[in-house]
């Protein structure tokens, strides 16, 4: 069973109970740095509450370019979640816009270095869900 657990102007968070998968779908809405941090902190709180072992971040419509300081902040928070929640796999659908994709790619490289094959970037949802086993 999949349930929407939170909806904002920027994203929709769903949870698949059977597979313990946290699914994030970003909307195509521009945001400022503080809005990004606020939305991400809310997402991190939900994840701590739901305790997923699988995580799919659909950033294909993300219209936000992370600057280096936001990348560092995001990376440290994601690493904290990986370690505290014991996330087994994290699939990311890359943004279609060039600059958001480039910025996210730079942040993901650090995650791949830290967690190896537990982090994968995809260009479509089907491949990501197959890889996650959802």
Overview of the molecule:
A hairpin with a 4-residue loop joins strand 2 and strand 3. It is built from four helices and six strands; from the N terminus they run βββαβαβαβα. The chain has one domain: STAS domain (Transcription Regulator spoIIAA), CATH 3.30.750. Helix 1 packs parallel to helix 2. The protein is an alpha/beta fold and 134 residues long. It has a six-stranded mixed β-sheet with strand order 1-2-3-4-5-6, sandwiched between helices. The model has no long low-confidence stretch (mean pLDDT 90). It starts with a strand and ends with a helix.
For the structure shown, list the relevant keywords.
134 residues; 46% helix; alpha/beta; single chain; 6-stranded mixed β-sheet; 6 strands; 4 helices; Transcription Regulator spoIIAA; 24% strand
| Total number of strands | 6
CATH architecture group name: 2-Layer Sandwich
Give the helix tally: 4
Helix content: 40-55%
Distance between termini? Answer: 11 Å
CATH homology group: STAS domain
Mean pLDDT: 90
As for the CATH topology, it is Transcription Regulator spoIIAA
Largest sheet: 6 strands, mixed
The CATH top-level class label: Alpha Beta
For the biggest β-sheet, the strand order reads 1-2-3-4-5-6
Query: Poorly predicted ranges (pLDDT <50, ≥5 residues)?
Result: none
